[in-house]
Fold this protein.
Amino acid sequence: MKLKLKEGLTRNVVLLGVVSGLTDISSEMLYPLVPLFLTVTLHAPMSVVGVIEGAAEATASLIKIAGGWWSDKMGKRKPFVVWGYGLSSVAKPLMALAFAWPAALAARVVDRVGKGLRTSARDALVAASTPKEHWGKAFGFHRAMDTAGAALGPLAALLLLNLGLSYRKIFVIAFIPAVIGVIVLAKAVREVPPPAPAKNRFAGGLGGPCGEFRPFTVCYAVFALGNSSDIFLLLKAKNSGFSTTHMILAYAGYNVVYALFAGPAGWLSDRLGKIKTIVFGFAVFAGVYAGFAFASSSAAIWALFAAYGFYGAFTEGVAKAIVADLSAPESRATAMGVFQGAAGLLAFAASSLAGFLWTYVSPSAPFALGAVCAAASALLLAATFRNLRAECRSL
C-alpha cells in the first residue's frame, strides 16, 4: 500500500508541492487581510476592491499565456518558475509600503506578474515529472500542499494580529516563507525540458490526441465568468457579523478541507474519470454559492466555507490534469497558459462585475450569478464529453 501511495509522487512533484506550500503560507497571510487593509486602512470603496482584485488577476492571466508560450519556445521550465516565485516574494513587503490604494494595486500586480510567469511552466514541469496515469494524483498532491500553506497562512496572520502587530508588519513577515520557498526551488528542483521547442502557435495547435482542448476551455469559461474573487466570500462573512478572527478562521477551515481532500480527489479522478470529477466539483460550487446568496446565520456561513473546500479539491487540480491530457508535450506550457489565462481574464470580469453587483444591486447578486454559471458549465461539460474516444478514456 505504501508503494501505491508513492507512485507518481516523484522528487520534483514533492519539492514543487513544498515550494507552493511555503509560498501560499506567505500569500495567504495577506489574502484575508487585504480587503480590510484596503477598505479600513486605505479607505477604498468596494467597487475599487473589485477592480484591484480583477486587475491583479487579469495581469496574471496575460503573463500566464505569454510565459507558457515563452517557456515552450525556450525549451526550459525551471528559470520561469524561479523568477516567478521570486517576484511574488518581493511583492509582500511592497504591500506594506502602500499608503494609498493605487500603491496597493501596484504591489498586487507585481505579485500576479510573478504568479503568471511561473504557473504555466510549473504545471508543465509537474506533468513532465510523473507518468501520465498519475497526473490526477500529482496535481492533486500539488494542490493539497499549496492549500495546506493556504490554511496555515491565515492562522499565522491571526496569531500575529492577536500579538498586536499591524497589517503592515504582517506583510513584511510574510516575506520570510516566500524567500525560503525560492531557495528550495533554486537549489533542489530539477529541470525537465519539453521534448523540443514548440512552434509559434497558440490555441489552434495545442491539442493532444484527444483534440478537445478548445471545447473544454469554452465550457470552463462559462464557470469562470461567475467565479469572482474569494474576497467577496470574506466580505459576506464580515457583513454577516463575523469578527476578523472568525472570518480568518472560516477561511482557514475552507483551506483545511481543500487540502485534506485534494489528494484523494486527484487519485479518484485518475480512476473514475477527470470530467466526471470536475462536473461534481462545479455542482458543489453551484450549491455553495447559492447558499452564500441566501445565508444569513453564522452557522450557515461556517458550513458553507467548509463545503467550499470540496469544490476546490474536486476542481482546481483536476482541471490542470485535464489540460495536460488535452495538450501535446512540446506545447503543454502554452496550453496551460492559454487555459489558465483565459480563466483569469474572465476572473477579472467576474470580480469587477461582482463588485458592481454588490454595490448597486445586492450583496447576494454576485453569488447568485456564480451559482448559475457553475451549474451551466457542469451541464455543458457533461454533454460535450458524453462520448469519449478510446484514447481519451483517462478523461
